[in-house]
């Protein structure tokens, strides 16, 4: 592709030879983007460009960055990065390559000339308008192992820092292409694959592998020396992808003591781990026929994994840690990836060195598989110490599960160990006991079976290391190196284990991570003790080498330590540190005492000035005011903060009272306003004039005598438009003893539109500079009194209200709306040009009130191709801000094809970043208005205030045409303000949830009983059609929302909630999520269930009922039978109803559920005749309740996926059967039994006699020693005759009076 003739290559280094200072960016990578899909258009474009041969470098740059108008610096940097990771630099060529040209740089890599990826990246950036530098230093590459030393200044690698939107970011395009998959660090183990980690890598992460020789380019608040860098462990990019962090050892070389050590690594994403150990001397993985790996015990708990090693010999070993993210992502390989590596130096062999028992897994102790089976083990530790050889572990069941145990010991046969261990199923728990044959080390393996889906297959779920030894021997064992056990005696350990295991912080080095919390800009202080921690992108590491964090393992890096409060300075052209206050700047005195204010009525006569009072203009005393210059430092700048709040209130009130009076002349006015109250503080003088001017209706003001050239003429000129607020303010300051200056220039006022060009005579405005205590300050009294509420600029829509922002605003902020004709009156260190002013976003005062900053787009006009992601930062650590937006075409039209343009936007706020995801439907120009308000219960009815606006030029849209987002209730996605006010929490921090196999689940933790309802929304399906594709239920302290997507597409999930104890039945919107299904699925809709249908109903807890077998009201079965148990605290009458649900139609199947009561336990035996969904509705009432109404107490939804056996109807159950009766056998009678007679055993409390009636035959049952009635029923002679066989009981009194309890039909 050839560049057009008018295109000119420009090297930014020649235009801006001065490189901005190296300062760590204010933004994290996560702030800029959270998903690489944001760059899909750019990435696809860069890959396509990489496949094209270009005649010249000029053609290449035009094709890559300018043919598609990549206007933002981030987009251009991304395009270059992605091109380099897709381009084979060994084959690139140009037609005419001259020395010392860009073509020479790009082809030198192929021609074996001195060049690097970094040099190429720098060249391409500079010719694309991006400042970029090459950084050289040492990198821990292919041949590096922990403990290696770098020699001299023979630096082995180079990478880049690129300047994007006035912030430096680190990039390594070479390592992004050369992605190491294997842990072997050998060339043959490399595959060339793109790794996004090395694009805009956070400095706190890159320092583990890249050390810049120039310390400032490490971009750290505390740069590392080379020796400190060498000491760091070897870390791969996957380490950070898993959100891993070092907890026990922050140095790469670990000295073992007595041949033992324990290394602990934390992680914040669900991850599986394994490891590898090799000899540092020869790379061998074995020692004396045993794998070195078998000398290490790995245990995983909560958010950390520990590797406890006992060396079989002295010497050095390399220990590599592998991770496997449990992402659930489709297409992700089920492999472990090298993440970190240590060098362990053993001083000697461990005294107890021996291979661990040969068990199935590398991880010891209960983990994720145990939890997935709904088991709660009494031992959470991986090690079970026993001094007498006895083992006792209990697994509490929350659903039906079977367990099987195996014992392992080196040198002993499996069959000899079988009799030493036993598992006893006691219904609600399984007790594992063992008696070990001799002292030593054993492995206890636990296998589990979920009868609902596993059939007869048992799967390994966990294993324990059992140590049968004396307490003294246990105290010296290698596993005592674990930080959880250090400083604990074996007896204490056993006690801790029986109480649910250790908690982090019990011992020694883990005390700093007992309560994981996040504290910093963008994240409220949150305790994650009972909540899975958020993704690591929100929790970048701040600590490095040699330290254990004392305030939680994560901290925000928005403000680097030791650099002070970094402030964003748009006018300075960079992110600057506050300079120290310069000598000679006047010190602002403290404010005076409060003014005594006399209340006035409108038109009240003001006090007269004394005859001796004279107006003396300051300009006649000192004609030349000090020259304009920027304020000297941030401290000591005049502001309202320098005035005592009580004094400020009285000054303002005095100005308001004075505005009610009419004065004969300016002399009387100035006396009344200032000198009558002896106001001498310069800030207070300025304030009282400003407040009077913003309050007084100047168009109704009159003076007795108005002479030409008098101050009265200036004030009266506002009536005829001959004067301005700035002139009046200047006049008043002049007679108040303050130097003032009228500033004229351009202003982005009510009729301004983003991207508008300023020409002489248009958008003219005037404001003031006033000299206060040695500093020139800015004031716009006109705009302060004329604040516009509303987005349109017609005169009729003006609303007048005092806007405090325009009193002494920050000069770096006012430049966004006010551009003086004389650049000196910008009062900035580096004045901006008119072109820069025109390109600045249009910001309103509220933008600064809320402390907002631009993260992504810093120009008034955005050029879009595909989706656009706008991002603002807000100070979430000190204020809760809610955002909103509106979109319209530039001509004011707000709809496209009958759909509001707002529907093409999605707003969400996470971690102090407000993002606006836009996918505009057609090419053209749009305006987006962004609004904000403080989101507190007190402000729930407060209207949003506009904070900024952009013009968007959509140059290209995707194909097919973008669809609007689902039609949800709000434009804000994710958690709403009510979510936090209800005390809800969730691991799902972002608003977008991706399905897997068409399904998605959202979990919300609740702190008190709550009621929920959820709705699905879609552009193609109606609400009623989607009712069956979302299910809500509450289990314990967690609310579950399960979505089954009916087809590929996007679905809005609206969640409503209330506190039924205080809010009745009204539900409030708390959150909404975007469910994205990118799979072709064939979904079966769930039955349509009303809100609150599933699970416990109000009477459930009131009656003292509790679930024993199935705590989750949704039961998925791989078989067609299930038995559900309840516990009671009083005698109950119960019944059940089973309803088959098929395609919206319901059919009662009451004959297929059987109720039994045994003591305090209630059993519901359910047989399902076919595949499908069933509603199981349970009813109960205390036995002493005489009413005939049984209220619903619990509802289940059963999903029968497979019919594994033929089932038959149960006998009909009469009322008295449900008052404590139970029957071990037979539950059903049918012809397939193949028996002449059937044994019956039944328990009937309080029965005096029991009989079976078969046809005309009475068969009396006899009571057995166990308290059951038993006998035999003749069945063959009745089969096929539709005969009735009944179970009857006599309860005393009339011996001929029997009540029917059950009725079989055969």
From TrEMBL:
Region forming the signal peptide: none
InterPro entries named in the record: Ig-like_KY, Papain-like_cys_pep_sf, Transglut-like_Superfamily_Mod, Transglutaminase-like
Gene3D superfamilies tied to this protein: 3.10.620.30
Region annotation (Disordered) ranges: 568-589
UniProt xrefs under SUPFAM superfamilies: Cysteine proteinases
Pfam families: Ig-like_KY, Transglut_core
Positions of the Transglutaminase-like domain: 106-175, 717-783
Name this polypeptide is given: Transglutaminase-like domain-containing protein
Organism: Potamilus streckersoni
